[in-house]
Design brief:
- With 444 residues, the protein is α/β, with parallel strands linked by helices.
- It has a domain of 244 residues: Aspartate Aminotransferase, domain 2.
- Helices cover 39% and strands 15% of the residues.
- It is built from 15 helices and 16 strands.
- A seven-stranded mixed sheet has the order 4-12-11-10-9-5-8, with helices on both faces. A four-stranded mixed sheet has the order 1-2-3-15. It has a three-stranded antiparallel sheet with strand order 13-14-16, with helices on one face.
- Strand 10, helix 9 and strand 11 form a beta-alpha-beta unit.
- The longest helix has 25 residues.
- The chain binds pyridoxal-5'-phosphate.
- Pyridoxal-5'-phosphate binds next to helix 5.
Length: 444
C-alpha cells in the first residue's frame, strides 16, 4: 500500500458508482447532500455511501456492497436492522391509522415498560427527538429552580437546541461562546461548561453561579466513548443537592444500552430528570423526558411549563419502541453485552499485535476506541488521539465491509443480531484494515 489517497483505496475494493451519482444530485438539493451533518463524512473525508436496505447486523448500499454495521442508525437499533418483531408490530398498528393527536393505549404501555426499568421516571412525556427532550428538560429545570444557568460538559452533546450549542473552554469553566452563528450570545452565556470528570471545576462553578441544572451523558458517546471516573457521578449528585441544582442524565444514547436499567442501575445514582431517545423508538422517531411526579406535574396541562407536539406519542413510533423494549429482555441485553466484550477484547489483542496505541472499552452494548496509549477521561484528551490513523482505519474498514461511525469522536454500538459469526468476520476484516492503515502511516 503506497497510496495515501483514501477514496482510491476504497474504490479499488468497492464500486460506488450509484452512491456517487445520488450524492452528487443530493448536494444540489440538501446542504452538503445530507439531512444531518455527520452523514457527509466530514470527519473522515471521502464520499458517503447511499444505503439501500438493512437486515440484522448488515446494511447494503445502492451499489449492493455489504457492510457489517456498528453505527446502527447512531444507536437506536439494539435488535439490529429491520427485526421481524418490530416490522410485525408496525404492520399491526398501521392498519388502524398512523396518527390521531388523541391519547392511545400504546403510549401508556410504552411508558409502563420504561418505568419498570427506570422506576425514578414516575412520570414522563413523549416527544419526537432527543433534541426536543433535552430542550424541554432545560426549560423544566429552569422553571422548577427559578434559575437560568446550565452546566454542561465539553464533548457532551444534548441535541441542537440553542442552549446546548455552546463551545467549551480548556478545562476551566468559561462563559459560553456560541458554537454556531444564530445562537444569541445572551442565551449562550447562560450555558457554562467544564471538562468531563473535573469535579473540582463543577464544585467551583456550582458554588459561584446558581445553576438550574447540571446535565451530562452518564457515559459520553458524542465525544468518543468516555467513561466517568469512579466518584464523578456520585460527586455531581452531592454538589447538585448541596447547591440546589437539578441533576439531569441525558440518556438519549446510554438508555437501554449501558445497562438493562440505564445509568441509575449502572452507577447507583438517581437523577432528578432524565432524557431518553434512540432505543426507546427502536428506529422510529421517539424520545422522552421524565422524573418524579412532583417535578413532571409542572408541565402543562397540570402545570404552567409549556411543551407540546403534534406527533408526540405517535402510534407507529410507540409500536416500534414497544416491540424493541419487549424483545430486549435482561437475558438478551446480557447476551449483547457479552458479545460486545468479546469484540472489544478481540480489538485490543489485534491492536497490540499491530503495535498500535489503542484504548477500547464498553458498557453494555455501547463501545468505543481511541488510537491512544493513555486512558481518555475528557474531550481534550480525546482530541490528542491519532485521528489521522483513525481516518485511514475507517476507510480501510469500510472498504472491507465494516461500517464504523465516520468520526473519531463517536461511540459504536452492538445489536442482538451481531452473533459469533459477525464478530469473527469483523475481527478478520478489521485485522486487514489495521494492517493497511498502519502501513500507510509508514509510507505516508
Ligand atoms: C443523539 C443524542 C441527542 C439528540 O437526539 P436527536 O434525536 O438526534 O435530536 C441528544 N443527546 C444525546 C446524548 C444524544 O446521543
Amino acid at each position: 500500500m503506497t497510496s495515501t489517497s483514501l477514496p482510491d483505496t476504497m474504490d479499488a475494493l468497492y464500486d460506488t458508482t450509484r452512491s456517487q451519482e445520488i450524492m452528487a444530485r443530493s448536494r444540489t438539493r440538501f446542504p452538503g447532500g445530507v439531512n444531518s451533518p455527520v452523514r457527509a463524512f466530514g470527519g473522515v473525508g471521502g464520499e458517503p455511501f447511499v444505503v439501500a436496505r438493512g437486515k440484522g447486523a448488515r446494511i447494503w448500499d445502492v451499489d449492493d456492497n455489504e457492510y457489517i454495521d456498528y453505527v446502527l442508525s447512531w444507536g437506536p437499533l439494539v435488535l439490529g436492522h429491520a427485526p421481524d418483531v418490530v416490522l410485525e408490530a408496525l404492520r399491526d398498528v398501521m392498519q388502524y391509522g398512523t396518527s390521531f393527536g388523541i391519547p392511545t393505549g400504546l403510549e401508556l404501555e410504552l411508558a409502563e415498560k420504561i418505568a419498570v426499568r427506570m422506576p425514578h421516571l414516575e412520570m414522563m412525556r413523549f416527544v419526537s427527538s432527543g433534541t426536543e427532550a433535552a430542550m424541554s428538560v432545560a426549560r423544566l429545570a429552569r422553571a422548577v429552580t427559578g434559575r437560568d444557568h446550565l452546566l454542561k460538559f465539553e464533548g457532551c452533546y444534548h441535541g441542537h437546541a440553542d442552549s446546548f450549542l455552546v463551545k467549551a473552554g480548556s478545562g476551566v469553566a468559561t462563559l459560553g461562546l456560541p458554537n454556531s452563528p444564530g445562537v444569541p450570545d445572551a442565551l449562550a452565556q447562560l450555558t457554562l461548561t467544564c471538562a468531563y470528570n473535573d469535579l473540582e471545576a463543577v464544585e467551583r462553578i456550582a458554588r459561584s453561579v446558581p445553576l438550574a441544572a447540571i446535565l451530562l451523558e452518564p457515559i459520553v458517546g458524542n465525544g468518543g466513548y468516555i467513561e466517568p471516573v469512579p466518584g464523578f457521578i456520585e460527586g455531581l449528585r452531592r454538589i447538585a443537592d448541596e447547591t440546589g441544582a437539578l441533576l439531569v442524565f441525558d440518556e438519549v444514547m446510554t438508555g437501554f444500552r449501558i445497562a438493562y436499567g440505564g445509568a441509575r442501575e449502572r452507577f447507583g445514582v438517581t437523577p432528578d430528570l432524565t432524557a431518553l431517545g434512540k432505543v426507546i423508538g427502536g428506529g422510529l422517531p421517539v424520545a422522552a423526558y421524565g422524573g418524579s411526579r412532583a417535578i413532571m406535574e409542572r408541565i402543562a396541562p397540570t402545570g404552567p411549563v409549556y411543551q407540546a407536539g403534534t406527533l408526540s406519542g405517535n402510534p407507529l413510533a410507540m409500536a416500534g419502541g414497544l416491540a424493541t423494549l419487549g424483545a430486549l429482555t435482561r437475558e438478551v441485553h446480557d447476551g449483547i453485552t457479552a458479545r460486545t466484550a468479546q469484540l472489544v477484547a478481540g480489538l485490543r489483542e489485534m491492536a497490540s499485535r499491530h503495535g498500535v496505541p489503542f484504548r477500547a472499552s464498553h458498557s453494555g452494548s455501547m463501545w468505543g476506541f481511541f488510537f491512544k496509549d493513555e486512558l481518555v477521561t475528557n474531550f481534550d484528551e480525546a482530541k490528542t488521539s491519532d485521528t489521522a490513523l483513525f481516518k485511514r482505519f475507517f476507510h480501510a474498514a469500510r472498504a472491507r465491509g465494516v461500517y464504523l461511525a465516520p468520526s473519531a469522536f463517536e461511540a459504536a454500538f452492538m445489536s442482538a443480531a451481531h452473533g459469533e459469526a459477525e464478530i469473527a468476520s469483523t475481527l478478520e476484516r478489521l485485522d486487514a484494515a489495521m494492517g493497511v492503515a498502519t502501513s500507510n502511516t509508514l509510507s505516508g
